[in-house]
Specification:
- The protein is an all-alpha fold.
- The protein is built from 24 helices and two strands.
- The protein has a two-stranded antiparallel ribbon with strand order 1-2.
- α1 (about 10-30) packs antiparallel against α2 (about 40-55).
């Protein structure tokens, strides 16, 4: 049943979302000001909770919220403009923009598709080998390029269509391995904790990123998690009939022909970018952080770039606004002294506990919050307080940030994570298959994290500050 207001219909779910979005902030607003809970702090909580609910329910355009929230704080005197807009002076928003630009160009030129099909064709074209090929492609793309979820999702969907697979376990296997391969390997990289670092920088101060190979080494147990997830998919989604896509991949590669000039340019910039990352900014000669933002943008630069105005038009600027608005939540919270209040409330509970108990609490906070918040919303809300408590317990905040990155990836339903939604939105994965794979992935992550990863960090003296 739905209600028609002329311009659209609200279902019962819409009513619940919208009433919650308005109701909870209204309750917070009605709480009387007293002591430290002054009007500034009240307006901050009211506006931030409403924004987070809008991000979670997606009942208001993401960009609208991202633009309105910081302006609200300035207009109503919650915080000064130099505090609210401080995140724009950091490299994170520009790094995110650079990653979006590179992904768009690699997809449009066809270079990413060529790399994927080459890997799959070389590994083999039976069903299990197709899954392995996707896993290998996604692994290296996620580690070296960053977020490639949308192009990998499109690639996997095209593969399912070409093999005649629709809403069956075989299609689920291809799409779910694609999703896992596009997202899980990135949690091992030195770029993984960047978001949380940015949200917590006001309490931790500037932290030094781990080296390219050092981050892979410190998170080595997650490679086993990745392998086990792919193996689980192969076991859960065994094909009911033999599948062989050998001719399809050969035809696709043949149809693509030789490398175009645009692909060569994109490949050259990509290789330069990878060398830059691996060498940590050519031995520290150039800024690694700002280089991660600048070099991808070369792909749309005149003459040397592989993209043009068509690619620029496809860039999702609203995502950059969203990231920066979320970062501003942490900046304003520190300005208002909210981090200290949270520590005072949490420390009596966690004081004297082991680091395993603290990490378990952090894992549960992220996983449970996923049901009502976006991953970036979780970083914005909890990076600062968790980092503050960690420092008080003598735990290195970087370990917390890596744990948060992987914990916010533990979902059951597609709506919990926008990037996994890409893979579900094509409509060829049944909900029961999605939930089965994601539930298995979550259990495997919990086991690997607390039996192997945290002891591994402890062994390598990564946990204690």
């Amino acid at each position: 049943m739905s209600i028609d207001f002329g311009k659209g219909k609200w279902t019962k779910v819409d009513w619940a979302k919208n009433l919650t979005t308005i109701g909870i902030p209204l309750i917070l607003f009605l709480i009387p000001c007293s002591g430290i809970y002054d009007m500034q702090m009240k307006l901050f909580f009211v506006s931030t909770v409403m924004a987070v609910l809008c991000f979670a329910f997606e009942n208001v355009p993401q960009a609208t919220v991202a633009i309105t929230l910081p302006l609200f704080w300035i207009f109503f005197g919650v915080a000064p403009a130099d505090t609210v807009f401080a995140p724009w002076t950091q490299y994170i928003p520009w790094y995110v923009l650079g990653g979006v630009v590179m992904a768009v160009v690699l997809e449009d030129t066809g270079l990413l598709k060529r790399i994927a099909f080459f890997c799959i064709e070389k590994v083999g074209c039976t069903y299990n080998r197709i899954l392995i090929g996707i896993a290998i492609t996604g692994f290296f793309c996620a580690i070296f390029i960053g977020d490639v979820s949308l192009p990998i999702a499109a690639l996997c969907y095209g593969l399912c269509k070409s093999l005649g697979l629709h809403r069956c376990k075989e299609a689920a296997g291809i799409m779910m391995v694609g999703a896992i391969s596009a997202l899980v390997p990135g949690m091992m990289t030195f770029q993984a904790p960047i978001m949380s670092m940015a949200f917590a920088i006001d309490v931790t101060g500037p932290l030094e990123l781990l080296g390219f190979f050092e981050s892979l080494y410190m998170n080595l147990p997650l490679l086993l998690w990745y392998i086990l997830c792919v193996a689980a998919a192969m076991l859960m989604f065994k094909p009911s009939r033999p599948i062989n896509g050998k001719e399809y991949f050969r035809e696709e590669l043949r149809a693509m022909g030789k490398l175009s000039l645009a692909e060569k340019k994109a490949a050259a910039i990509l290789i330069f970018y990878l060398v830059f990352l691996i060498s940590q900014g050519f031995g520290g000669v150039l800024s690694l952080e700002w280089g991660m933002a600048f070099i991808p943008v070369l792909t749309i630069a005149p003459v040397i770039g592989a993209g043009g105005k068509e690619q620029v038009a496809k860039i999702q600027y609203d995502f950059v606004l969203f990231v920066t608005a979320c970062m501003a939540i942490g900046t304003v919270a520190v300005y208002l002294g909210i981090g200290d209040l949270l520590v005072d409330a949490v420390m009596p509970i966690l004081e004297g506990t082991s680091h395993q108990v603290f990490f378990l609490a952090a894992w549960l906070i992220c996983v449970i919050s996923n049901f009502v918040m976006t991953p970036i919303g979780i970083y914005a809300a909890f990076s600062m307080p968790l980092a503050t408590v960690a420092q008080a317990l003598g735990i290195d905040p970087m370990a917390v940030f890596y744990l948060m990155e992987a914990s916010t990836d533990q979902i059951i339903f597609p709506y919990e994570h926008g990037l996994y939604m890409f893979f579900f939105a094509f409509g060829i994965v049944r909900m029961k298959d999605f939930m089965k794979m994601m539930g298995t992935k979550m259990v495997l992550h919990f086991v690997i994290t607390f039996l192997l990863l945290i002891p591994w960090w402890n062994f390598n003296h990564f946990i204690f500050a």
